Structures are given as structure tokens and as C-alpha cells.
Amino acid sequence: MRMSYQPPFQITPAILALVEQIGEALGRIQAVEQPNAKPQLHRVNRLKTIQASLEIEGNTLNLDQVTAVLEGKRVLAQPRELQEVRNAFAAYEAMPGWAPHEEPDLLAAHTLLMAGLVDELGSYRIGAVGVHGAQGVIHVAPQASRVPTLMATLLEWLAETDEHPLIVSTVFHYEFEFIHPFDDGNGRMGRLWQTLILSRWRPVFASMPVESLIRDHRADYYAALNACNQAGESTQFIAFMLQMILHALQSAAHTEQESVQATEQVKRLLLALRGDCCSARELMQDLKLKHRPSFLYNYLQPALKQGLVEMTQPDTPRARNQRYRLTELGRSAVRRWQ
Fold this sequence. Notes:
By secondary structure, the protein is mainly alpha-helical.
């Protein structure tokens, strides 16, 4: 049966090369994954994803604050920002139960993601919307009366297409942003749904913080969307998003390799810290280490990078009275080991 809609895009040699490189990066991650370390790493990546996706939309909370909110700690911030964090976490946690091509699931996701933030939850917009940039309106979305049909045909294409999942997820992301089906929350919904599509292909994407790369390249992200609006097809956005996915995977592969090499050392460091706040010299004494470079490279730096340990004076890393303590994530790890 012929599909009623085929999104316009081209598969260029550069896009094919990116798809191949992404496949190789996935293979490297699978080769070094440690099942016992995955829950902790996945949670850190999930928090990075949430923080980055919300920051793109103007939320000012940093990663530590997002972590604190989800741990039930008091964080001084605007109530809306706190609600956005809780909603995003609930949506990403519910993601495994959704089917990408099912409209009721899409609407349920919007309800979770935007609860307490907008009046119309889980329903398409009934008014006109536009995307604003520094120069004013850069995109006027299709008329509201067309949205139900446009979304139905897009979801039908998603259910029936035999294109590669990397291409499918990115094309859907672009088409969704072009339609702008909701009054608010379209950006975070588009990124959430691309993650859902990719995670159905490879579960590792459920906790792959691609959004962090988009945040760091948000000007290019919006430029790619706008260029595709002008061109009338999503080729340039496909290339951009595949580059972000590749960079995220390469970073994850590097982190996994570091984790394989440093797990036992980091564990010893965390157990030495426990509830204490110690200097580097005190930690080396507790661990019976004499070679400072080995301590820094194999113990302290990996623990800092993984968010398990933090400095008491992060603005002055080389301070003479610098001390180190467990983060909440580090304390959770110690509790599990004990």
C-alpha cells in the first residue's frame, strides 16, 4: 500500500558516511559496556539529557540543581523551572511504554511533559504559532486546522517507512518542528520523540545525552531547521543531527573505556571518602599511594568526570586548601557497595 505522505529529503554520500560511522561507534560502546556500571551511568546521562533539553528552552537550572530537584532537595528557583524538571524526568521515565507511531502516546507524552505549564495538555493547538529568532519571526507554522491531518500522515509514514532508523528519527524531528503541533513544548517534544524512535532501534539511545550536544550547538541547530524550512526539505537537518549523534556516541565510548580502566580505583576512592571531606594528600595517605600523578589520573580525575566527587572550591581548582567530597551520586554508589 502506498503511503499518503513522503517527507522530502535526500540521502547524500555525507549522510551515508555518518550512518556508517555511527554504526561503528555503537559497536565500540557495546564492546566495552559493563552491565554492573550501566544503571549509574544511565542515570547521569538521563539527567544530562533533561538539563540540556530544558536549557535549550530557557531553563536556567544547572546539572547539580536538576539532580537536587529530582532527589527532593530544596532548590531556589522559579516554580516553573522546577516543574519543568519534574515533568521532563517523568516523561523520559515513561518513554519505554510508548510506541513512536501511536498518536495517543504522543499526546500522553505532551501531557506529562507540560503538566502545570500550559492550559491545553495533550491536544493540538487551535491557534496560529510562529518561531521567533533574533531577527523576528523565522517560521510560521501551518494553519491549526491542518495540524490533525499533518500529524496523522506523519505518524502513518513513521509506522510504515523502511528507511534507516537514524534517518527516520531525524526526519520526524524536523517535520514535527515544522508542523509545530502544540501551543508550547514543541522543541522538547521533538527531541524526546527522536530519542524514543532511536531507543526502539538501539536501547543505548534511551540514555544517550544527544541533547547536550544540541545545546552546545544550538545556534547551528536552529540554523539547520531554518535552512530546511527555506529549502522545503530536511536534508541539511539530517546531516546536522547525525553529526550530533555521532559526537555523543564517541564521547560515550570514551567514557565507557575510562570507566573500564578506572572502576576499581574510583571505587576505592569513594569508599575512602565516604562521609568525609578530604584533601588530595589525605586521600593519598588513606589509599596508601605515594605517586601523585597516578592518584590524579587513575583515581581523582575519573571520579570528578563521572560526577561522583566534587571540589569544595570548584572556581579555584588549584586552591591550596582544596578539598573533595562525595556528590549525592557518589553517596548513592557507596550505599550500594556497602
